């Protein structure tokens, strides 16, 4: 059937094509014009229309006699288009996942390169300052003499770092190297007002005896982290936990949660200062009340800001 249809279309095209050419020639000779076009252009348009007529008849016959053609045109093509659209949508999360993997690989490569650099520096000599180590911390309050205050902070930081890197050198000279843009940014931010904590950090590992230390600043708002009397974290000590081993573990876990919480609020303090021997206080209480549950609360003993030490006590409440 398909071969018969193909042969028929070839014959039909062969018959109509000379007819269209003849019709175009006749129109050209008769100097017939459509819409005031020149006869030659009119003949060309007629020839083009004849070719389009051949194509239309061919498609019409295919639709009329070929079920397979109708299936492909009206069913398969829309189905394929829908499948393509769904595939594109399914590809989006895969592309996002690929980007995440590429970012993770790039991050690991950076960490590996940093590690290689650190190893080389360790082999070359004694490292006295590590990359990203905080070298100096200072309070900065906005005022008309802010540039003068920052200059004093930079000089104090420079002298302190010299005692670490070149402690035996009598000649005093500046060894901290800043990017001018960093200093300008500090001045720009602090002049807007408010209280700030300025951290001066090392940009590289530094060996003992190096002549220069590359540093960068980190500026944090000096805000209240905890207030006096605030319960920072708490934990229930059950009947099954009332032995010394579990008590110590619970307190250690509780202090760890406290440290994480103050860090999340913006504190730059690494350790928590505790007052009194509250472990002994808990043990003494347990000797008298073995069958009672307790609530342990870590309570702040003072208002503490971003760079202030966190001083806490442990309150014990019977439940």
Shape: elongated
By DSSP, the count of extended strands is: 12
**What is the oligomer described by this structure?**
single chain
> Could you name the ranges where pLDDT drops below 50 across 5 or more consecutive residues?
none
Strand adjacency order, main sheet: 2-4-6-3
End-to-end distance:
92 Å
Count of helical segments? 7
Q: What structural class do helix, strand and pairing data support? A: alpha+beta
Tally of separate domains = 3
Strand percentage: 15-25%
Instruction: Describe the sheet with the most strands.
Output: 4 strands, mixed
**Overall average pLDDT:** 77
Order of helices and strands: HHHEEHEHEEEEEHEHEEE
Q: Compute the CA-based radius of gyration.
A: 42 Å
């Amino acid at each position: 059937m398909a071969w018969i249809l193909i042969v028929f279309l070839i014959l039909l095209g062969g018959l109509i094509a000379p007819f269209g050419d003849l019709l175009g020639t006749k129109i050209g000779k008769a100097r017939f014009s459509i819409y005031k076009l020149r006869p030659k252009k009119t003949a060309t348009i007629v020839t083009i229309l004849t070719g389009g007529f051949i194509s239309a008849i061919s498609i019409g016959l295919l639709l009329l006699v070929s079920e397979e053609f109708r299936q492909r045109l009206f069913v398969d093509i829309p189905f394929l288009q829908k499948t393509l659209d769904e595939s594109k949508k399914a590809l989006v999360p895969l592309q996002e996942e690929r980007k995440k993997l590429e970012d993770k690989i790039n991050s690991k490569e950076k960490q590996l390169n940093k590690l290689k650099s650190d190893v080389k520096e360790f082999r070359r000599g004694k490292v006295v300052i590590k990359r990203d180590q905080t070298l100096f911390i200072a309070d900065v309050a906005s005022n008309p003499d802010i540039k003068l205050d920052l200059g004093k902070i930079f000089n104090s930081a420079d002298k302190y770092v010299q005692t670490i890197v070149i402690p035996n050198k009598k000649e005093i000279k500046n060894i901290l190297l800043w990017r001018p843009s960093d200093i300008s940014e500090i001045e720009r931010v602090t002049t807007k007002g408010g209280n700030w904590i300025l951290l001066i950090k090392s940009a590289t590992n530094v060996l003992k005896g190096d002549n220069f230390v590359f540093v960068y600043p980190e500026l944090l708002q000096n805000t209240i982290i905890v207030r006096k009397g605030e319960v920072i974290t708490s934990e229930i000590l059950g009947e099954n936990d009332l032995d010394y081993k579990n008590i110590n573990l619970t307190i250690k876990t509780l202090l760890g949660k406290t440290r994480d919480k103050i860090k999340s609020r913006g504190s730059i303090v690494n350790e928590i200062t505790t007052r009194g021997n509250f472990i002994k206080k808990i043990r003494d209480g347990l000797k008298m009340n073995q069958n009672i549950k307790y609530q342990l609360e870590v309570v702040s003993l003072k208002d503490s800001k971003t760079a202030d030490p966190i001083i806490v006590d442990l309150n014990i409440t019977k439940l």
